[in-house]
Inverse folding.
């Protein structure tokens, strides 16, 4: 990752995902140690990014006799770390304590607001004020040339090939794999937990019509999509947003039409809305300090 950051001259943003039960099964990793392993991996990688080597790492889960990180990141002290999630309250509070932006993934608006408030409350306990720069939100958005075409293609979000760890082509969650014992505390879960099984079709999931109604899917022409995006920004106030498109049974042509309209009309409008609503991103305001990045250099000085 440090090499990528050097080659791109500081454009790397690292997303750190704890994963679900299906990843533990795929990697043959004991679920009860998932949280411990994640935290130790974070400490190890940050040390490799920020401290000179060689050094020795003897942890509970990882042991390396000789670590010599000869490539250092271009960004100082290191690239941004973002933590996406849906279920674990422990993960969200940890992100707030570390002053790491937390990215919520395709969740309903009201539970997402409640989860974001937990982040803000934890930040207050830690002695700092969090803001939009500490939060992000991803949801499904498809833009098309007509309302009829947008609805036709939008329905493809819940059709087509799905994850092999989900039972059935339309993605009914396999609870035996998703919720392995010890993976996440059953008592410390976020209000958004149910979103973990609501992203696709299937018996346990949410229909296309319901997802349209609750804004976890947004479709339409630019004229109708932009006001819906504004509503979501007003409700959640995230500093970073991500549009999830081109999924399910969508074709290449479906994706390219949406990308073109996104670039030409939607994204420029959303940038202006973000300015109007005062939603700075973690590229504008340092989530760790609350200061504008122009006042706190985040990249290394490189001689011409």
């Amino acid at each position: 990752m440090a090499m990528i950051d050097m080659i791109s001259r500081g454009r790397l943003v690292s997303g750190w995902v704890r994963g679900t039960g299906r990843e533990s099964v795929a990697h043959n990793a004991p679920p009860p140690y998932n949280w411990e392993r994640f935290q130790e991996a974070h400490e190890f990688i940050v040390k490799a990014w920020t401290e000179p080597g060689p050094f020795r790492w003897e942890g509970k889960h990882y042991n390396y006799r000789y670590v010599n990180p000869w490539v250092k990141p271009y960004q100082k002290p290191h690239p941004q770390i973002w933590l996406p999630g849906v279920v674990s309250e422990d993960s969200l509070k940890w992100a707030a304590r570390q002053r790491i932006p937390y990215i919520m993934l395709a969740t309903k608006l009201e539970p997402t607001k409640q989860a974001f408030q937990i982040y803000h409350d934890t930040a207050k306990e830690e002695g700092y004020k969090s803001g939009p720069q500490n939060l992000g939100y991803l949801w499904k958005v498809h833009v098309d040339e007509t309302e009829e075409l947008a609805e036709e293609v939008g329905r493809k979000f819940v059709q087509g090939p799905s994850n092999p760890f989900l039972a059935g082509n339309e993605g009914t969650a396999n609870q035996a794999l998703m919720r392995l014992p010890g993976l996440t505390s059953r008592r410390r879960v976020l209000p958004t937990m149910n979103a973990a099984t609501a992203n696709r079709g299937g018996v346990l999931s949410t229909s296309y019509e319901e997802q349209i109604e609750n804004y976890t899917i947004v479709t339409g022409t630019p004229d109708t999509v932009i006001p819906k995006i504004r509503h979501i920004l007003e409700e959640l106030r995230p500093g970073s947003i991500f549009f999830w498109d081109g999924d399910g049974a969508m074709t290449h042509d479906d994706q390219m039409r949406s990308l073109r309209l996104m670039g030409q009309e939607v994204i420029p409008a959303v940038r202006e809305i973000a300015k109007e609503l005062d939603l700075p991103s973690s590229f504008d305001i340092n989530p760790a300090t609350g200061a504008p990045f122009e006042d706190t250099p985040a990249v290394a000085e490189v001689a011409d």
Notes: Residues 197-204, 299-304 have pLDDT under 50 and may be disordered. Strands lie at 13-15, 55-58, 63-67, 80-85, 102-105, 135-143, 166-167, 172-173, 217-220, 240-244. The longest strand covers residues 135-143.
